[in-house]
Task: structure prediction
Amino acid sequence: CLMNIKREVSELPGVQSVSEGGSGFSVRGGAPDQNLIQLDEATVYNASHLMGFFSVFNNDAIRDITLYKGDIPAQYGGRLASVLDVRMKEGNNKHFEVTGGVGLIASRLTVESPIIKNRISFIVSARRTYADLFLAFSKNEDLKNNKLYFYDLNAKLNYRVGDRDQVFLSGYFGRDVFKNGFARTNWGNGTGTLRWNHGFNSKLFGNFTAIYSDYRYFLGTPEGETTSFEWNANLRDVGVKGDMSWYPNTSNTLRFGVSSIYHMINPGIAQGVGNETVVNTVEVPKNYSLETALYAGNEQKAGTRWTLKYGIRASMFQDIGPGTVFEFDSAGKAIDSVVYARGEFYKTYFRIEPRVGLLFSINPKSSAKASYSRTIQYLQLAQNTTVGTPLDIWFPASPNVEPQTCDQVALGYFRNFRRNTIETSVEGYYKYMNHVIDFKDHAILLMNNKLEGEILEGTGYSYGIECLVRLNETRLNGWVSYTYSRSFRVIPGINDGNPYPAPYDKPNSLNIVASYQIAKRWSVSANWVYATGNPVTFPTGRAVIGGKVIPIYSDRNAYRYEDYHRLDLSVDFSSKQKPGAKFTWDLNFSVYNVYNRHNTWTINFVQDNEDPNVTYAEKVYLFGIIPSVTFNFHF
Result:
């Protein structure tokens, strides 16, 4: 649910901007220590209420969220973006507990309980939206056939073996489904994790983890056209890692470890559907690779004011057969190929990633921070902004595609006022990226088994400044955050080699959030968000060749969608909090998108059926105004 996560994380307290990047998203925020933002269960729960809709995080199953920004610790790597670490609850090991909610849009249920008290416990949490059930009753025939819903399941088993050992088994499965008259798409992830936590002594602790994940993505068009097709892709990972934490004294915290992940990428199988289609089946060759890393980092306190973080990460990436590597000429045409056998290592990259951060506490109310980090990304994500559907292609670094490198510096100042009830911050950053990739003009994506020939490589840079004012009063809480940020690419062969906006370039982003406790059982919340529209490449003309209309496109990302903005309102009414009450509840009345803003999801350019000389723009939006009532309970 990347697009939903990106939207929701931007509205969590302390977060100032969220930008897509690499294979994930980069999150920025402000906090007094500026090392990370720690969001606990209550914060995530409150944020989901402020949304006036439903949370992409299942807050009933989440214990806390840790957000790392510019000074990313050495144990994290493989991405150019920042890191969002989401931790599940471990399950109540004292007594049986049920939490849930029944609403007009979605329902959820969480059960946690000890199997053996204080020793073995579990938690199972599930949700589903059901907007698709109501669409079937619509009088609009186009809406009746639409689909829009998601479901997910979280589960975790916690076994305390002894005083020094604890074993966790957890899993997640989720799926998002969307269908309209133009396109069908669904995506989702299934993951499983087995972790063993061991305390060697009072100063040395270890976590040893085995991980499996399977991300799947589907894109298709309705039957009945000559171009009707279905495209399926997936990315599977199997990995192990060992993380050690050593506390030699009160001034140093040393972390070190090793990780290894085996990537299996299926870039896609495309095939025609329906009797009218002329699309042939095309399968892009699968990719196999091994990513390994060693890291060590230390957090050192010098006196009462200085904190120094430094570390280094050594990473290695290896392409493994079976595989076919093509050699391309300057025009991207395959002129030769080499076939590698199963299990054969045919390309190895090795990179060093230093990290350093410095925090200075000026006084109890203010602090300053500076940081530098280098990160490497071996799995690539290329996006196409000229199509009407969200089309992302994954592939690994290879003999033809270098891994991406990012150097980032950041400098910030943070100050609290009025007995720490008002938090303020301002931070600037600059990022420079090497080996950035993008599709060349008129790239053939879906039906192409030589996809690397459609890719061009260059550099990128991003910069910005972020401001936050946050109020933490007894009855009135909220924040205002504003970010000015730019992100550009410079790739020979695109836009005549001139800089152009990256797909996630959003100059302005503004969030205003407020929550007020009217009475002991009543509270109201409001949330307004604004962001500059996404860059997009639009057709600006057309040519007729052989009786067929061929679009002529603008410079890369020369246009933008309409600016995004939305207001959400909600009212909460809670049950009486009697001492020792075993059953509690609350009612949430909410309105998502109060003034019914039709924010653009995509714009398609459609040729008129009656007059082929006429082409019109067709706007697609996902949500208008949505009122909802949810009954939440806990016992």
Notes: The chain has four helices and 39 strands.
